Amino acid sequence: MPWNLRIPQVPAGLQQTLEIATEKRIKIVINGGAINPRGLAEETHKLVKEKALNLTVAYVNGDNIIHKAHRILADINSGALAHLDSHNENIHLAKDSLDFLDHPETIPVVYANAYLSYRAITAGLDQGADIIICGRVANAQTSRVLSAILQKPFSETFLRLSLSIVEIVSSDNYVVTKHEGLNAIITLDTGNLYLNSDIKADITHIKVKEETTNRVYVLGIKGYLPPATTKLAIFHKGAHFASIHCTLKIRTVITSTFLGFFPTKIRESKLTDAIDIFGRDSVQSPTRTIVSPPKSTEPLKDRDNYDAPRATSLASFGVTVNRPLGDLTLGRSGDKGGNVNIGLYVQTDEQWRWFRSFMTRAKLQELIGADWQD
Q1: DSSP assigned state of 168
Q2: What is the DSSP string of 161-178?
Q3: Which N-terminal stretch is annotated as signal sequence (predicted)?
Q4: CA-based angle 7:342:366, to the nearest 5?
Q5: Closest by alpha carbon to 178, among 154, 149, 144, 140?
Q6: pTM score, two decimals?
Q7: Could you report the average pLDDT of every consecutive run of 10 residues in the chain (374 residues)?
Q8: 158-166: long-range contacts at Cβ-Cβ below 8 A with a sequence spacing of 24 or more?
Q9: How far apart are alpha carbons 307 and 311 in whole angstroms?
């Protein structure tokens, strides 16, 4: 597999980081290996040797299960693997979503990667790894892994945005801060159940307090057992598309291929989650440790879905004017399969009293319009 199928900014970040990591004995865990974590780990190992540093490099293995493509297709056809949204009767898949099942020769599966948990990372740290390269892993939510430095190479480097620092106080309390010399702001402006491969985090009773400038204290999160499954992202070749518009550029007229996406869930017991640790002098024959799936699991319950209790009458706020929603609210969104989740928030108590009464489930559905699907 080509070594460069990874997040391109990672080597440059490591180039600037390895000496200070050696000096301060900082553990580095990076989820920038994309679909070739071994390739990035080998590149990192070479960099460590060139700098003559005493660092052990490892990588997480097992998320890429493309070698099981035929079995995956058979399981989807039989119903053993269902679409991630199949439990929701209000969601209807696009008409071509399952075409790849009937035409494996012309619409082949090209990637099949599962979201791995923290367990292989923890095993690597326990065995002395200093740098661990990950491919497709879930955001680890345990104190053992968060005690390491989790670097994510997605910052807009031209703004010199700081990476956040998490100081763990206890199993459900932590402080979020940053380096003083770098840009960014850590403030309070940042479904009640957050699911990943390791744990279900219940943030119903979360409290966030601003301790000092750029220092926020978070408490009240509860953790519950994870489900026995994890997300599996399947990509297959699509058809072709082309477009044309009235400019002097005609490159978009030429047909281009695209990838189709089929998200599903797979039992963690079907995966081989492992950590491979290189020797100091060679990347040949790394030491492999296979980790077992979670011993205790529980089914995922439905997330709470309700309008704000004891809502305030909107008429009580007085005369109103029409304004863009973004004038008063901030927000962020993230993809979950083919869907998008969105969080909206305001900044004062008065705005919150209005917003929690105004932004009902019906209002959100009205604003999203034809794109709304339960």
Answers
A1: E
A2: BPPEEEEE-SSS-EEEEE
A3: none
A4: 140
A5: 149
A6: 0.79
A7: 64 90 92 89 95 96 93 92 82 81 89 90 94 81 40 37 71 77 66 67 83 87 86 82 57 70 91 95 95 88 84 91 90 69 86 93 89 72
A8: 159/183
A9: 8
